[in-house]
């Protein structure tokens, strides 16, 4: 995957990590624009290549009454407006074969969720759009097994594949990050570390996923030190009242300080 092949991506010569960040789900236009405006201002200031993230729908929910979205087309149009307003690329996840072509009309990067990354037809449908494909490593998969997911994209004639590690199941209700997997997966494609989902505590008896957001800085710093190409994190100005995954999101007010720390670590690593 080459960053320069992602439309509207900026700061690719800064030698910084790249960042995929935004809310878990598109809850409405005002919230998406508010988060994007601040994230774009920060990443422009720090010269970080940036892709705005937002799910146009959420399909993998524990409970039937969980928030799943505001309507597919409505959310996708908001993602397009973010891109056009702030001149940045956007990424969203897809869950069904029919989602691939639809979402590709609005966004620049298609993301395959971790639970679905072994679904060949879905991966192929996404790859055939010609978009950059972000393959999330299944919580149940080894780093070595991700080479096959990448190969599916390559076999479709699409060289724009990236792998995102979002943690590995540790018992029933916790996740861990095995940093040994980062150099392994970098043999197959650039690697992103999903900092916030790696701190989820799934399968709670309430049916609402928990998390440990106080550890976001620790995991992000370790990821940069381990040599990841990029970071993924979900952020919101009011995580406590976010309609999806609020328990493990980074408060938007904390984003700039964390990124400054991460840039300092990256610069140190680059000097060796």
Could you explain how this protein is built, in words?
The chain has eight helices and 13 strands. It has a single domain, classed as Aldolase class I (TIM Barrel, Alpha-Beta Barrel), CATH 3.20.20. With 272 residues, it is α/β, with parallel strands linked by helices. It is globular, with a radius of gyration of 17 Å. 33% of the residues lie in helices and 18% in strands. The longest helix has 18 residues. Helix 5 links the parallel strand 5 and strand 6. The protein has an eight-stranded parallel beta barrel with strand order 1-2-3-4-5-6-9-12, surrounded by six helices. InterPro entries: Aldolase_TIM, DAHP1/KDSA, KDO8P_synthase. It is an enzyme of class 2 (transferase). Belongs to the KdsA family. It comes from Galbibacter orientalis DSM 19592. One of its GO terms (molecular function) is 3-deoxy-8-phosphooctulonate synthase activity.
Secondary structure layout:
Blueprint: E1 18-22, H1 29-46, E2 50-53, H2 72-86, E3 90-93, H3 97-104, E4 109-112, H4 120-127, E5 132-136, H5 146-155, E6 161-165, E7 168-169, E8 175-176, H6 181-185, E9 191-194, E10 200-201, E11 210-211, H7 216-226, E12 230-236, E13 250-251, H8 255-270
Parallel strand pairs: 1-2, 1-12, 2-3, 3-4, 4-5, 5-6, 6-9, 9-12, 12-13
Antiparallel strand pairs: 7-8, 10-11
Helix pairs in contact: 1-2, 1-8, 3-4, 4-5, 7-8
EC number: 2.5.1.55
Pfam families: DAHP_synth_1
Keywords: Cytoplasm, Transferase
């Amino acid at each position: 995957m080459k960053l320069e092949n992602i439309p509207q991506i900026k700061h690719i010569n800064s030698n910084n990590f790249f960042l995929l960040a935004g809310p878990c789900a598109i809850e409405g236009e005002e919230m998406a624009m508010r988060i994007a405006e601040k994230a774009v201002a920060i990443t422009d200031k720090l010269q970080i290549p940036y892709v705005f993230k937002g799910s146009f729908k959420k399909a993998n929910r524990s409970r039937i009454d969980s928030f799943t979205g505001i309507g597919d087309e409505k959310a996708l149009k908001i993602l397009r407006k973010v891109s056009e307003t702030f001149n940045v690329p956007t990424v969203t996840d897809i869950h069904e074969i029919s989602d691939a072509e639809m979402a590709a009309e609005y966004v620049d990067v298609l993301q395959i969720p971790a639970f679905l990354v072994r679904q060949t037809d879905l991966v192929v449908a996404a790859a055939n759009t010609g978009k950059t494909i972000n393959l999330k490593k299944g919580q149940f998969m080894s780093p070595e097994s991700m080479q096959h997911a990448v190969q599916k994209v390559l076999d479709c004639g699409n060289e724009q594949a990236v792998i995102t590690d979002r943690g590995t199941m540790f018992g029933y209700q916790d996740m861990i990050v095995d940093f040994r997997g980062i150099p392994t997966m970098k043999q197959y494609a650039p690697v992103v570390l999903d900092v916030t989902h790696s701190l989820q505590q799934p399968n709670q008896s309430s049916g609402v996923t928990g998390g440990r957001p106080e550890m976001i800085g620790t995991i992000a710093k370790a990821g940069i030190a381990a040599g990841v190409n990029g970071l993924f994190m979900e952020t919101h100005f009011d995580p406590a009242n976010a309609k999806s995954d609020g328990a493990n999101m980074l408060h938007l007010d904390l984003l700039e300080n964390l990124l400054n720390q991460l840039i300092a670590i990256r610069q140190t690593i680059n000097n060796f």
